[in-house]
């Protein structure tokens, strides 16, 4: 991307503004609770952290206000006003609760929010089981419709795990029906309340990523979180755009074409090689900094060091950005520069942030030919 050297500045800064949230999501990375924790950054500390972002230089990284529920952050309006006045682009990821009112949605326009992320993990039964609150599915659909009506750019976020994967075609149809342009798909990591029994097999991970590439042919932009193998699969599809998937891929494609009533057209080809700590950085509620929200390996704290210094000088971050430092199968892979595997998943399974991503079934050519 023009103006970006991911060794020098991130594309995205995820800020866990608070752990407070009114939902009870069974997979929650943040293990969110009803009230803010005592060590949450106060307003002055928050503004000090944000002020250093301008030291990265233009174009400034995009700040993603997340949580918990960012609407429960104290003085969140003042924080959004500061970002607007400082001309730092930012997006918001609010929880769908009673706090996300029509008035609040309209205020996002006033504060110049770049986009709004809304979580939708499946149809009613599936989504409400995941989110832990009855009625949240209907509320979510209403919020999506309101955002579209107000002309606010928005995206749907969906977590992929065993209990949600079969609803992906239905979520895709809803996205198309509501004219949503971006779908961000999260793959489960064993952090917070992430649960082991919901994890997919490597072959299923491969099939789901191939399905997402297929789904781009319906004219929506799809990004994956903690599944950089999506980029490897995109490149492997080549100029023909041909995708050959296994049983789960075939099942999802068949269901999609049945409920949508047509086949997709040209699939996406572009890739942006961000990964944990490389183009992405995460700031916790208390200022602790991590390569991503799913990789709990602390590299600093913005209360006593600028986010710029942490991003550029952390020894771990500098090492993790070099694909030649990866070990195991990821270290041999010819796609390590554009994929590199999920460092968070490698850490979750082996306690080594440089290890092999266990979700990947691909065997590198150098290993096959050895």
Written description of the protein model:
With 370 residues, the chain is α/β, with parallel strands linked by helices. The chain folds into 2 domains: 249 residues, Alpha-Beta Barrel (TIM Barrel); 44 residues, no CATH class. The chain has 14 helices and 11 strands. Strand 5, helix 6 and strand 6 form a beta-alpha-beta unit. Helix 3 packs parallel to helix 5, helix 6 packs parallel to helix 9 and helix 7 packs parallel to helix 9. The protein is globular, with a radius of gyration of 20 Å. The two termini are 36 Å apart. InterPro entries: 4Fe4S-binding_SPASM_dom, Aldolase_TIM, PqqE-like, Radical_SAM_PqqE_MftC-like, rSAM, rSAM_sf. Pfam families: Radical_SAM, SPASM. Its cofactor is [4Fe-4S] cluster. This is Cofactor biosynthesis protein. One of its GO terms (molecular function) is 4 iron, 4 sulfur cluster binding.
Rg over CA atoms, rounded to whole Å, is 20 Å
* CATH architecture designation of the largest domain: Alpha-Beta Barrel
Give the terminus-to-terminus CA distance.
36 Å
Order of helices and strands: EHEHEHEHHEHEHEHHEEEEHHHHH
The tally of helices reads: 14
GO molecular function: 4 iron, 4 sulfur cluster binding; catalytic activity; metal ion binding
Protein name: Cofactor biosynthesis protein
Cofactor: [4Fe-4S] cluster
Domain Radical SAM core: 7-223
């Amino acid at each position: 991307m023009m103006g970006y050297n991911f060794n020098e500045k991130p594309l995205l800064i995820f800020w866990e503004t608070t752990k407070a949230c009114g939902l009870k999501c069974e997979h929650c990375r943040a293990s969110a609770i009803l009230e803010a924790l005592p060590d949450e950054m106060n307003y002055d500390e928050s503004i000090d952290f944000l002020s250093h972002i301008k030291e990265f230089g233009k174009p400034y990284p995009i700040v993603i206000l997340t949580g918990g529920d960012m609407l429960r952050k104290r003085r969140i309006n003042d924080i959004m006003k500061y970002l607007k006045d400082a001309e730092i682009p930012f997006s918001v990821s609010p929880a769908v609760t009673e706090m996300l009112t029509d008035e609040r949605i309209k205020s996002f326009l006033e504060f110049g929010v770049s986009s709004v992320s809304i979580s939708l993990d499946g149809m009613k039964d599936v989504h409400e089981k995941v989110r832990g609150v009855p009625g949240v599915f209907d509320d979510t659909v209403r919020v999506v419709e309101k955002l579209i009506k107000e002309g606010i750019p928005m995206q749907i976020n969906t977590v992929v795990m065993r209990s949600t994967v079969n609803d992906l075609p239905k979520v895709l149809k809803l996205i198309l029906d509501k004219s949503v342009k971006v779908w961000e798909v999260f793959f489960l990591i064993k952090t917070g309340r992430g649960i082991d029994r919901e994890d997919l097999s490597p072959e299923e991970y491969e099939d789901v990523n191939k399905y997402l590439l297929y789904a781009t042919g319906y004219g929506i932009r799809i990004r994956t979180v903690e599944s950089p193998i999506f980029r490897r699969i995109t490149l492997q599809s080549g100029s023909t755009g041909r995708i050959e998937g296994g049983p789960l891929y075939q099942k999802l494609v068949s269901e999609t074409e049945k409920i949508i009533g047509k086949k997709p057209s040209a699939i996406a080809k572009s890739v942006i090689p961000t990964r944990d700590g490389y183009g992405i950085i995460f700031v916790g509620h208390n200022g602790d900094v991590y390569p991503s929200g799913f990789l709990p390996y602390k590299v600093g704290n913005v209360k006593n060091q600028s986010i710029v210094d942490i991003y550029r000088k952390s020894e771990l971050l500098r090492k993790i950005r070099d694909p030649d430092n990866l070990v195991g199968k990821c270290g041999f892979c010819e796609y390590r520069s554009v994929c590199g595997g999920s460092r968070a998943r490698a850490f979750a399974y082996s306690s080594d942030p440089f290890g092999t991503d266990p979700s990947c079934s691909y065997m590198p050519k150098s290993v096959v030919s050895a």
